Amino acid sequence: MKNLINIIQLKPLGDDRGSLVALESNKSVPFEIKRVYYIFNTKENVSRGFHAHRNLKQIAVCVTGSCRFVLDNGKNREEVVLDSSTKGLLIEDLVWREMHDFTPDCVLLVLASEYYDEADYIRNYDDFLKEAK
Ligand code: T46
């Protein structure tokens, strides 16, 4: 069975000026990147997500601050705290995701394998369970 929590360690290319992380399609990122978005300024006690995707792979990185991801494949539910700019969470198709506990400084960067398509979202948990079977 595939792991639910897959962390990709992103290599920091640092020197005495500071750090830099480079992300490249089909190299450190195991898919072609078609879209990049970032979530920031999330209000206190707000949780996000609560959906799955039918056909979308993503990598999520907290470039500053932290948040907690819950992933659920319909059988198991696991969680991970993203608290490092070198920790990328790979999220595969048909995985329910929730994001909680955003710190006020959190900037969550997401690299996506597909263009935005609202029809790809499964926003009802019971519908997700039926499709995940
Ligand atoms: C995901 C988690 C990690 C767009 O118009 N284009 C986009 O590329 C995205 C991502 C969103 N939107 C619109 C759709 C909504 O009107 O932005 C609004 C907020 O999106 P949503 O409520 O889906 O945001 P989150 O934080 O619940 O989920 C997002 C991604 O949508 C989702 O794919 O996996 O972050």
Could you give a quick summary of the protein structure above?
By secondary structure, the chain is mostly beta strands. The chain has one helix at residues 125-132; strands spanning 6-9, 35-40, 48-53, 58-64, 67-72, 77-82, 87-91, 96-100, 107-112, 121-122.
Q: Output mean pLDDT.
A: 97
CATH fold-type name? Jelly Rolls
* CATH architectural label: Sandwich
CATH homology superfamily: Jelly Rolls
Report the radius of gyration as a whole number of Å. Answer: 15 Å
Structural class: mainly beta
Distance between the termini: 14 Å
Number of strands: 10
Biggest sheet record = 5 strands, antiparallel
Task: Pick out the low-confidence regions.
Answer: none
Shape designation:
globular
* Total separate domains: 1
Indicate the percent of residues in helices. under 10%
Note the run of SSEs as H and E: EEEEEEEEEEH
Strand content: 35-45%
- Number of helical runs? 1
Q: Using the coordinates above, name the CATH class.
A: Mainly Beta
Give me the side-by-side strand order of the main sheet. 1-7-4-9-2
Name the ligand types: dTDP-4-keto-6-deoxyglucose
